[in-house]
Amino acid sequence: MRWIYENSMAKSDDLILGALDSLSADQLDRFKYKLSTLKGIGYGLIEKESNAAVTRRIISKFTEKDAVAHTAEVLRAIDENKEADDLGEAHARK
Question: Is 79 left (phi over 0), alpha (psi -120 to 50) or beta?
Fold first, then answer.
């Protein structure tokens, strides 16, 4: 998914989806749990959802403008700092 971060035309949803796709199953489960506790998106709603569906929920709740920052915050909360940095840098380039 590195190409998404290097593509200056990538939209916020592409960037978020790329970040989620790069996580292992365990990391993704931790991301969903933290997303529910930190950002108020019910875990029961996202527990079994695909990465694309979770991405849509994040953008729906926070708007495309703010969704990347909220996603990066959750990534940092689960100690995925490199992924959060990559996401933030890619968003700054777009």
Answer: left
